[in-house]
Amino acid sequence: MLKVGVLGAGHLGKIHLRLLQQSEKYELVGFYDENADYAEKIAAELGYHRFDTIAKLIHAVDVVDIVTPTLSHYKCAKVAIKSGKHVFIEKPIATTVAEAEEIIALAREYGVQGQVGHVERFNPAFQAVRDKIENPMFIETHRLAEFNPRGTDVPVVLDLMIHDIDAILSVVKSKVVAVHASGVSVLSQSPDIANARLEFENGCVANITSSRISMKNMRKSRFFQKDAYISVDYLDKVCEVVKMKEAPENPGDFDMILQNAEGERKQIYFDNPAVAPNNAILEELETFAEAIQNHTTPVVTLEDGTEALRVAYQIIEAMERQK
């Protein structure tokens, strides 16, 4: 088992602590949080060992799980990597692309593994259809959330939209060549609602909408490709795959047949895969342990996290140009 320690015991940090304690792939050694009074309270209430310095925690573990505010990701990762420790970093990987690129360089230099916490890659609905998404040419996503002051220190692009950016980049194997975006600050100093249009070199277009001032929560993506439509509901963890094939000469009474203007006839059918329930956060942490132990590539690499951050900032810059 790999010895692991958690940096940051906030809302998400406590979830990581609980899951790591349950995991059969890790031995949870303890945690560090810079708020000493809060850390003492967590240690007393939940029974986790509390380290009083980051250095002591890093020295005691094989893997450092960084769940601190984004502003400190780079600093924490740098110290851990230079100590020869593997790092799991919550999304976004860092505050700037330059910081993210240095994290990549350091990991290579010190020979350690790194993974970024883009948890939607492990959502069971996305996993169920991942292999069915082949060369999508139009993608539409909506990620809407009710207002929560937590996270409003950054634009909604870095808070929410980056989940969909990463998922899209994982299925579109082409370079982003154009970015158009607009955003509005309603309750925060930074944009609370944003829409972006990504154009890829291969002709694919992605239309992404994110809001943190919605009346209801929604996390849906739709992928359109040759002879197929695929939808993913990350919130309700359901998916749908609608496909088309050449219509049979003698269709059955219940076959769904469409005919286009050119007279071509297609049969519509459903190919909905089973969705296997999982705990996405636990799975992302445990697949990282497997990557370390087997010397394989993590599911969400440091490079993946950096590319998602790069595109996120291109969207933010596009919004700035609209002002």
Automatic annotation (TrEMBL):
According to the entry, every stretch annotated as the GFO/IDH/MocA-like oxidoreductase domain falls at 151-216
One Pfam family of this protein, by short name?
Answer: GFO_IDH_MocA
Q: Any stretches that span the bilayer, and where are they?
A: none
Q: Give start-end of the signal peptide.
A: none
Stretches assigned to the Gfo/Idh/MocA-like oxidoreductase N-terminal domain: 2-118
Q: Which Gene3D superfamilies match?
A: Dihydrodipicolinate Reductase, domain 2, NAD(P)-binding Rossmann-like Domain
The entry lists its GO molecular-function terms as: nucleotide binding
Mind telling me what this protein is named?
A: Predicted dehydrogenase
* Organism whose genome encodes this protein: Flavobacterium fontis
